[in-house]
Design brief:
The complex is a heterodimer of chains A (484) and B (400).
Chain A lengths: L4 E8 L3 E4 H7 L14 E4 L6 H13 L10 E5 L10 H8 L7 E5 L5 H15 L5 E7 L8 H5 L3 E8 L5 E10 L5 E2 L8 E2 L2 H24 L8 E3 L7 H8 L22 H10 L7 E7 L2 E9 L12 H6 L2 E3 L2 H7 L19 H6 L1 H6 L1 E5 L5 E2 L17 E5 L5 E9 L9 E8 L4 E5 L13 E12 L4 E10 L1
Parallel strand pairs in A: 2-14, 4-5, 4-6, 11-12
Antiparallel strand pairs in A: 1-7, 1-8, 2-3, 6-7, 8-13, 9-10, 12-13, 15-16, 15-17, 18-19, 18-21, 19-20, 21-22
Helix pairs in contact in A: 2-3, 6-7
Chain B lengths: L9 E7 L10 H16 L8 E5 L12 H7 L5 E5 L5 H15 L4 E9 L17 H4 L5 H16 L3 H19 L13 H5 L3 E3 L2 E2 L8 E9 L1 H6 L6 E10 L3 H4 L9 H14 L4 H4 L2 E3 L5 H10 L8 H6 L16 H4 L4 H16 L13 E10 L2 E11 L3
Parallel strand pairs in B: 2-3, 2-4, 9-10
Antiparallel strand pairs in B: 1-7, 1-8, 4-7, 5-6, 8-11, 10-11
Classes of the chains: A alpha+beta (484), B alpha/beta (400).
């Protein structure tokens, strides 16, 4: 049987990094005990990002810019913060990425180890031959109460992995998985926030007993010991728990992978795999990487880095993502983006944002996948496609073939920064962008601040939340432009 | 080959309500105010009206849909009333309907009334508009100023104008309109402003500040039209006739085709060429005496000066700063204060523009009367730069 493993991996972090010092200081009057956590930053999603949009961005980095994505035959999406409880979230991702309808889409949720669980599932699927190329993406944007420890511990982010049987950068060796109803925290549907039990109990009875048990089981199956492990991954918000477990399992504590607590924070379901991405950037052929996760039990997965790692040059490394973040010192902005304060939205915020689901489905490729048309007679590229081409003096009917815009570069033709229309992040930037091969769209700009854009600037498209219909509880997605 | 509308229809009478924040007035009150003035001006009785057109944009918060709001408000004698809507150019659309009915011989006398009651919406600016089910899913969640403001960025990029120079030129546009509006007792805003005030006003949509945006007003305007022969038979002299009426509508090219550069109005250029041809105007910069253009935003007026072929392309900033369009300039523009100061009750605006041109041509414009104008042009735009309708009317003395 041929090897299986991963052929590519990429992370996605939102642009902003919330300064933990700012948060701790703002809350010091009510939560002075949190001042000790006021160091470093945590990644902070824009208001128009959620676990689905962040996954789309991570997966795009794995798949590259090719229009042909027909080789993706299965897609696993793992998160504890899926935007929909009943609507296939991985199906939203499939539509955004214009994957084939035949791509098997699977949501894996309800536990912070969902990311590693999804990876094990995909590895097994490819190993069994029922999928030849599977995408696993894990993502979380967890809400936490203001002035809570979680607010400072959590971060927003996503990761995507290509599970494959060729061109492997890391070969899958073995895994073990424990399912234990140990309730360190919980959250029922309709609840915004976790309920947490005492930290010492979680650490001593949870992490320190459950994770080593899963590791020992894997060591036994793979016939190795802790001294064989070159990199040990365990996300935990409790200091030194990873070191303590490493020691307990015979792993050199120096081989514990940095959990990014001071830069991204804990990105939930994504975090084990995000740390995996970060260490792969530095790993050498032959290195053994042990990934573990905790939540409703524990998953442990062992990989061995291959020679191909030398040729693995991701466009954006985790290190560069971290370094390119923009520090945010406005705690109120964080609270507003995450709907943690009751803020005045004005009359323009009252507008009914009902989405016609019939229209959304009729134009699914155009809206979700940003697919327009290219006229077979004139070559004119346009968005959206139409029965009669927009080319002047070309009245032929139905001449257009599907044309994908999402991966094409564009330039700003015209723009404005609008303080009048409703926006969660005013001023509301939008304008016309012209695409490199032709076609134009008037779009919203996102991840920009006042003074960031001008006519002639290069932009690229990103998949984001367009509006949230608070009356009906519906998130509408579309594409926006960001400066390159 | 169509012969066009030139001199086939005369304006028999016009009326216009006071524009502004008419907290006291209902939609019916506003319609009646403009109607009574127009009927007195025309000197006719209601039973002489053959057909009516009613323009009104925001149906849900204004007077309601259909022709009944106008028929009931004016107690019309069960004649045809057609409600028309074409964004902010709705008023010109009502006028076009009435004029065409007379020109066709289907009506001897027809009336057009435009009305909007914006100050019952609760919004400081325009209330958001419904654009169907697809556009909200793919278009930006913007506003009118944000859409029109984009002209500035594209115009600057195309003509190499600095942000400061453009901001100053559009400020002058507003300063001029405020000076004109101060002489108009029916205007919404009747105070002069300084360039400094305009430049330092709160930002609405870059680079448009508060004074770059027109008034959001209640109001109504009315026109009664007939044939020149009937006008004469009713004892009228000093007859003002319609010289041209053109409407050009975007077909998606600006929004979807890379040939448009975002700095001008494609439809205005199309409509202007046709209107000048219809009115037999060959040198607009010399022959047009005065204009009322759709200055919803100061930058709209600036680029429109080029699109109407009055300023050469790239030269509007210079002409504006030279005072070419001021009250004492070569082609006074917005002599009544324009949308900027007279106000912009959407369904009424096209008719309000014609009202001023009509008064000026008849020498009845009071303190703001220009010296011997012969040709007046109105430019009424609906939509936004990338997707709009443009209505142009030219009127002048019959047989001039």
């Amino acid at each position: 049987m041929s090897d299986v493993g991963i052929s590519s991996i990429a992370g996605y972090l939102p642009r902003l990094r919330l300064s933990k010092k700012t948060v701790a200081q703002a809350n010091s009057w009510i939560a002075p005990n949190l001042m000790g956590k006021g160091k470093g930053t945590r990644s902070m999603a824009n208001w128009d990002e959620d676990s689905v949009t962040m996954s789309v961005e991570a997966i795009r980095r794995v798949l590259g810019k090719d229009d042909d994505r027909s080789h993706v035959d299965s897609l696993y999406f793992a998160s504890t913060t899926m935007p929909f409880i009943d609507r296939l979230n991985s199906g939203i991702i499939r539509a955004a990425l214009t994957l084939e309808e035949e791509t098997e889409c699977i949501d894996i949720s309800s536990t912070l180890k969902s990311g590693t669980t999804a990876l094990i599932q995909a590895l097994d699927k490819v190993k069994s031959g029922s999928s030849s190329y599977s995408i696993v993406s894990a993502s979380d944007k967890r809400k936490a109460r203001s002035a809570s420890a979680q607010e400072l511990d959590f971060g927003d982010g996503a990761v995507a992995i290509a599970v494959d049987s060729k061109d492997l950068i890391a070969k899958y060796i073995n895994s073990s998985s424990l399912s234990i109803d140990f309730i360190d925290h919980f959250r029922q549907p309709n609840e915004e926030f976790d309920y947490n039990w005492e930290e010492r109990w979680i650490r001593d009875e949870g992490y320190l007993k459950i994770v080593p048990k899963a590791i020992e089981e894997l060591f036994s199956k793979a016939n190795i010991s802790g001294s064989d492990i070159d990199h040990f991954i365990l996300p935990s918000v409790f200091p030194r728990v990873d070191q303590m477990i490493a020691k307990k399992c015979g792993i050199n504590p120096e081989n514990v992978v940095d959990n990014l607590a001071l830069s991204t924070g804990d990105t939930g379901s994504a975090h084990s795999l995000l740390m995996f991405a970060s260490i792969l950037e530095k790993a050498n052929p032959g290195d053994k990487i042990l990934i573990s996760s905790f939540g409703g039990g524990s998953d442990v997965i062992l990989f061995e880095v291959t020679d191909n790692i030398k040729n693995f040059k991701p466009e954006q490394t985790i290190e560069s993502l971290i370094n390119n973040g923009v520090e945010e010192n406005n705690y109120m902005k964080y609270l507003t983006f995450n709907d943690l304060v009751k803020w005045e939205k004005g009359m323009r915020g009252e507008q009914d944002r009902k989405t016609a689901l019939t229209t959304l489905y009729r134009h699914n490729d155009a809206i979700m996948g940003l697919v327009g048309g290219k006229c077979t007679k004139t070559g004119t590229i346009q968005y959206p496609a139409s029965p009669i081409s927009v080319s002047p003096n070309s009245p032929d009917l139905n001449t257009q073939e599907p044309y994908k815009f999402a991966e094409k570069k564009a330039k700003i033709l015209s723009w404005s920064a609008d303080y009048l229309s409703f926006s969660v992040n005013p001023p509301n930037h939008y304008g016309v962008v012209d695409f490199e091969e032709g076609g134009r769209i008037m779009v919203d700009f996102t991840d920009v601040e006042k003074g960031d854009i001008d006519s002639g600037m290069d932009v690229k498209m990103v998949f984001r939340v367009k509006i949230v219909d608070e009356i009906r509880g519906f998130t509408r997605y579309f594409w926006k432009a960001i400066p390159v | 080959m169509a012969t066009g509308i030139r001199d086939k229809v005369a304006i028999l009478g016009m009326g216009c309500s006071k524009f502004g924040e008419r907290w006291d007035a209902s939609p019916e009150d506003l319609m009646v105010e403009s109607y009574v003035e127009a009927m007195e001006d025309a000197g006719i009785e209601p039973n002489q009206l053959d057909a009516a057109w009613f323009s009104h944009h925001i149906d849900d918060i204004g007077a309601g849909k259909g022709g009944t709001p106008m028929s009931i408000a004016l107690r019309l004698p069960n004649i045809a009333v057609t409600r028309v809507e074409n964004y902010c150019a709705s008023g010109s659309e009502a006028f076009r309907g009435a004029v065409y009915a007379v020109a066709a011989g289907a009506a001897d006398i027809a009336i057009a009334v435009g009305m909007e009651k914006l100050k019952d919406t609760g919004f400081g600016g325009l209330s958001p508009t419904n654009y169907g089910t697809l556009t909200p899913q793919i278009g930006p969640s913007g506003s009118a100023p944000g859409n029109f403001a984009q002209l500035a960025s594209a115009y600057r990029a195309k003509h190499g104008v600095s942000a400061e120079d453009l901001k100053r030129a559009i400020a002058h546009v507003s300063v001029k309109s405020h000076a004109n509006g101060a002489k108009n007792p029916k205007a919404h805003l009747q105070k002069e402003v300084t360039e400094e005030q305009v430049l330092n006003a709160p930002m609405i949509a870059e680079p448009l500040g508060l004074f770059d945006c027109c008034g959001v007003s209640d109001g109504a305007a009315a026109a009664i039209v007939t044939t020149p022969e009937i006008a004469k038979s009713l004892g009228k002299d000093n007859i003002i006739s319609v010289k041209a009426l053109q409407l050009a509508v975007s077909n998606g090219l600006e929004n979807q085709h890379n040939s448009w550069d975002g700095s001008y109005f494609h439809t205005v250029r199309v409509a202007a060429k046709k209107a000048y041809a219809e009115a037999n105007i060959t040198k607009p910069r010399e022959q047009v005496s005065m204009m009322e253009v759709h200055d919803c935003f100061s930058v709209t007026e600036l680029v429109t000066m080029e699109d109407l072929f009055i300023s050469e392309e790239g030269n509007a900033v210079k002409d504006v700063m030279d005072g070419f369009y001021d009250a004492d300039g070569k082609v006074p523009c917005q002599i009544d204060g324009g949308l900027k100061c007279f106000g912009h009750p959407i369904g009424a605006s096209g008719l309000r523009m014609l009202y001023e041109m009509y008064l000026q041509l008849q020498g009845r414009a009071g303190e703001r009367q220009l010296k011997n104008p012969s040709i007046g042009l109105t430019h009424n735009l609906g939509g936004q730069p990338a997707n709009n309708v443009c209505s142009i009317a030219i009127i002048g003395a019959l047989d001039s």
